Amino acid sequence: MLRKDAPKTILDMATGTGDFAIEALKLNPDRIIGVDISEGMLSYGREKLIRKNLSQKIELRKGDSENLDFPDNTFDALTVGFGVRNFENLEKGLSGMLRVLKPGGRAVILEFSKPRVFPVKQIYFFYFRYITPLVGRIFSKDQRAYSYLNESVEAFPDGKDFIRILEKVGYRECTLHPLSFGIATIYQAIK
């Protein structure tokens, strides 16, 4: 979705270990900066970048969307993969990202959403409410993390509700593209 824009500077918010930032190298940008609040995730990501010899193209920094340490109008494009539902204050986070996006720059956000089509909706919610926490109890010491995934997805204002929030904070030309019967959605917006 960003290929036609040929962005030279890309910000990847909630970058985690940098997987989306690495994928964005296919767009041939001059520079990608990934930002995340988890130093543990970033440390693992930095090691990965060193192993793959990508440290000269991608930089990973600690930070959050509400207090980005970049000047206004810095980035040609912005990506977020499965991270906005975890923002402490969604509107402030989206506004912070908008501030650092250049005029005409594009934000592409991939996020879980709630399917609305029978029987996908019923299967999806059964799986997330019962199977995922069960798997978490069996294979993980952190049962709460598996329950949190379902809770955060259910609480997130997806679809047209998320589009309204994007428009409210100042994005324009906002679109949504449901994937996998609505299990995830790609949102695009322009500054």
Describe this structure in words.
The mean pLDDT is 92. The longest helix has 20 residues, at 120-139. This protein has a seven-stranded mixed sheet, with helices on both faces. It is of the alpha/beta class. α4 (120-139) runs antiparallel to α5 (143-155). It folds into two domains: 3-113 and 156-190, Vaccinia Virus protein VP39 (Rossmann fold), CATH 3.40.50; 115-154, no CATH class. Helices cover 38% and strands 26% of the residues.
Q: How much helical structure, as a percent, in the residues?
A: 25-40%
Briefly, what CATH class of the largest domain? Alpha Beta
CATH fold-type name of the largest domain: Rossmann fold
Average pLDDT score: 92
Radius of gyration: 17 Å
By CATH, the superfamily of the largest domain comes out as: Vaccinia Virus protein VP39
Helical stretch tally:
6
Beta-strand residue fraction: 25-35%
Identify the CATH architecture of the largest domain: 3-Layer(aba) Sandwich
List segments where confidence is low: pLDDT < 50 over at least 5 consecutive residues. Answer: none
Number of domains: 2
Q: Which structural class do you get from the secondary structure elements?
A: alpha/beta
Terminal Cα separation, in Å? 16 Å
Number of strands: 7
Strand order of the largest sheet: 3-2-1-4-5-7-6
One letter per element, helices H and strands E, the order comes to EHEHEEHEHHHEE
Shape: globular
Mind summarizing the main beta sheet?
7 strands, mixed
